[in-house]
């Protein structure tokens, strides 16, 4: 990588024509290009059409951002051709997504939407992903996250600050999805599964090996052929699981 390209991607370019400054660190300045920002964001484009009153010592206009320097830096990585910008957690993702939505930076929004629903986030923090998707009106991601919440007891999930930003309607829709899914699955399965399904209405819960093992063990004394029957019934169990998984996930 050439030194010029390196300086551009570090936002310290010698041919920059505007400086962005984060709200938390006036000393950290991002020397960038109006043409690139304008192409990425109609908000920046409109901003640069207005007179720029404040300037640095080298006469470059300065734009004071309300976002932190960390968020500004992350957002610029999505605007400039930085390969695979790293967003390692939901804590990092949310403020960058908020800035991208505010500034209408479509390229950043699309990339962050993909990062929001990576498997690690969905498996470990599905309720939080749902809340973030609801906050920013990301309907496709909201539906994906809603499905993953079925593996959890929503009321036992950690309380997240992201829940402050969603409506009671969106939260109620999720609880209603759990209720409807739980009832549909309990109708399809026996009473042994009902307690589990009442809290976590997902086939991943009741078809996991531990649950199936306990179910088989519970009838050993009643029927010696049951374990063998359960083994030969595995194909039917998979068919049943597929049918249940095809239940609607619409919130």
List keywords for this structure.
251 residues; mainly alpha; three-stranded mixed beta sheet; 15 helices; 57% helix; elongated; BTB/POZ_dom; BTB domain-containing protein; SKP1/BTB/POZ_sf
Structural summary, described in words:
InterPro entries: BTB/POZ_dom, SKP1/BTB/POZ_sf. Pfam families: BTB. This is BTB domain-containing protein. With 251 residues, the protein is mainly α. 57% of the residues lie in helices and 4% in strands. The protein has a domain at 176-245. The chain contains 15 helices and three strands. The chain has a three-stranded mixed β-sheet with strand order 2-1-3. Helix 2 packs across helix 3 (42-48) and helix 4 (69-79) packs across helix 5. The longest helix is centred in the C-terminal third of the chain and has 21 residues, at 168-188. It starts with a helix and ends in a 6-residue tail after the last helix. 27% of the residues are buried.
